[in-house]
Amino acid sequence: MEVDPWDIRISDQRVEDQLITFIIFCEDEVSEPLYFRSFGSDRVKINEIPNQRSKKLNLENAIQKCTEDGLMHFDGKRHKVLDSIDEKIWCVYDRDLEHTDLTQIKKVNDLQFDNAISLAEDAGIRVAWSNDCFELWILLHFEEVVNDQAFHRDFVYERLTEVFKAIPNQHEDLARITGHPDFYYKNNFKKRYDFLTSVLPLLKERRDVAIERSKVLQAHFAQTNPAYHLRNPCTMVHELVLSILDAERN
Questions:
Q1: Do 192 and 95 fall within a single domain?
Q2: Shortest CA distance to 31 belongs to which of 143, 185, 235?
Q3: Range of 178's domain?
Q4: Within a domain: residue 182?
Q5: Bridge partners of residue 235, in order along the sequence
Q6: Dihedral, 86, 92, 93, 94 alpha carbons, nearest 10
Q7: What is the pTM of this model?
Q8: Would you tell me the crossing angle of helices 237-249 and 207-222 to the nearest 10 degrees?
Q9: Is residue 221's pLDDT more than 70?
Q10: Looking at the domain assignment, is residue 41 inside a domain?
Q11: Which sign does the torsion angle of CA 164, 166, 168, 169 carry?
């Protein structure tokens, strides 16, 4: 029986104890949900909710659905996750800059990004945001990213394209994809089968170094604590990953 992706379920009961459940609202329908689903184990349940709309609507959808499902309530001032809820609720949320020329970015969109994160965190939802895109987290598995200037996600896709072309000892499927003259990471690895077979298997062994590189980006901006939209390049995906890994160990 097919499960509605909006069907948020309370943690499954086991004979000895209870699964630790992560409810993760994802903006896309391939990379993000497939990546986090791979963390599921006999200790941790990942309930990924794919294909949410980008910008603030991802966070607003999360608050609305969690309220409808009894995980949140309105306390008189704001919607808030109930103290009795054990589920760990996260949103994976990208800036998705609307213009490659960063001088053309509308200020209202910067404020929207900042306010959406603040709204979610005030409600008790953790936000694994990325500026500019989730694929920055993927790139950090393969190389350091210098944070001396902000950039559009096209830079990330271009770097990932070159990185995957240069991967040694490629298996047949990966070599077929990267050897094509029109190969471009965004076009090829946003497909379910290709992400599962050619990207995901390369990430686990590089995960620890990606976490450390992500922490470096985070620490750079922590010195001045600018508004979220100014923290570019930066990603908080490592905080969600570490939370899942901690749950598996405890």
A1: no
A2: 185
A3: 153-203
A4: yes
A5: 130
A6: 160
A7: 0.90
A8: 130
A9: yes
A10: yes
A11: positive
